[in-house]
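Worked example

This section walks through a single chain of length 286. The input is the sequence exactly as stored; nothing has been trimmed or padded.
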Amino acid sequence: MIRCREIVRADLAAVTDLLTRGFEGRSRDYWMEGLRRTSVREVPEGFPRFGYMLDHEGTPVGVLLLIYTAREDGGETCIRCNVSSWYVEPAFRNYASMLTKVAQRHEHVTYINISPAHWTWPTIEAQGFRAYCGGLFFSFPALSRSAKGMRVEVVQQDAQAIGGLSKADVALLARHAAYGCLSLACRAADGRGFPFVLQPMRKRRIALPAMQLIYCHDVADYVACAGAIGRFLLRRGRISVALDANGGMKDLVGVYRERRGRKYFKGPQCPRLADLSDTELVIYGP
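Given that input, the structure is written out below as tokens.
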């Protein structure tokens, strides 16, 4: 008998074993750490903490991890769900649609898929997802002009208040610093603050020591602060910052690539570029 049900804490060891078998190159410790972080983060009421699994006589044979986040948008609370890692044992693939049907049943939720393998794009689009990000722009920010008086400060996980930033910004930066990201506050000469979260990119075919832009208020903020950020990173051995894009960027030096960075959404709100906060990239890791 096969049934689809919510993952609970008692399932985590068995689910970790399943994910380790399903994803080559990912260690058991990788999954355990991500699930540990998921177990203590805030989750909107009424939504699953970990996701769903296919249960065969008490044993997980399929899993779909979900990351729900509540966000404020125009004075209203909106729900975003990162559809994360999916795996079903070969003998039970006929039941795989049960996972996606249950996981995507809320019409008021915006679902995002930020790491689809290119061979899955047609399947994702057949499920009603639309691309909102076409690729990654690999910028070389140290080649940008630095605004006069711009300062860059590292934000630690115990940060409480930072000049020029809201309480929500500081909380986001501190939370992501606790996830192991590089949280930065750029402050202009006039006192304005700009929050940024970056993360080292996983080494696959990327030869450059690159960082990925996880969060900023707007891509225009990164363009304005790129010179200061680039020099800050250069002193730490990083020469490139990859950011979500839909083509080349005339105000930055770099190159656009489509193969890796496509991202999809389904639901009422199209996500904006340069906001991958509280997603699998930071909770589970690149």
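What to look for: The two ends are 35 Å apart (CA to CA).
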